[in-house]
Amino acid sequence: MINKSEKLLKANGLKVTKGRMAVLNILKRSVNPLDVGDIIRFCRNEIIRIDPVTVYRILNTFLKHNIIQKTEFNEGKFRYEIKNTTHHHHAVCTKCGRIKDIRNCGTKKMEQTLINKMSFLVHSHRLEFFGLCAKCRN
Ligand SMILES: [Zn+2]
Ligand SMILES: [Zn+2]
Ligand SMILES: [Zn+2]
Questions:
Q1: According to the model, what pLDDT value does residue 1 have?
Q2: How large is the average pLDDT for residues 103-121?
Q3: Which ligand is in closest contact with the Cα of 91?
Q4: Closest CA to 14 of 81, 83, 70, 62
């Protein structure tokens, strides 16, 4: 039986390896964007031996093929998540580190202003919010 992760790798012309499958599955299962340390830890929990260099190499391959995206959350490191078709932003709790996806994007007006006033055509944008989550505010 061929599973979805395997299909995704093959659709991108990538050879199916244990490491690639592991990293892909971990990112798919996670609700939060993960850093390299998280990925290695998850692999270890599943008794998959993988070194950081391999994880970086796999992540770079996935980035190149647009399977995942990386974001920097003012932590001095990148976090990675599956690139889903829905454009979204993040709300990051600066106390507990919880990261939530924000599905609605309110930047259309700003982009319109940029093209109208500065003749600047926006291709993409990034926007992350930092603050305290409901739990940490109490
Ligand atoms: Zn919090
Ligand atoms: Zn996200
Ligand atoms: Zn947006």
A1: 59
A2: 92
A3: 2
A4: 62
State pLDDT tens for residues 63-72: 999 999 999 9
Residues 6+ apart with CB under 8 A from 21: 5, 6, 9
In the reported structure, the alpha carbon of residue 81 is separated from the centroid of ligand 3 by a whole-number distance in angstroms of: 16
pTM value? 0.81
Q: What are phi and psi of 122, to 5 degrees?
A: -80, 130
Centre of ligand 3 from the C-alpha of residue 125, in Å: 6
At 24, which helix (H) or strand (E)? helix 18-29
Q: Which residues surround ligand 3, an ion (CB under 5 A)?
A: 105, 107
Contact 98, 137 (CB under 8 A): no
Please give all residues whose CB falls under 5 A of ion ligand 2, grouped by chain where several chains appear: 81, 101
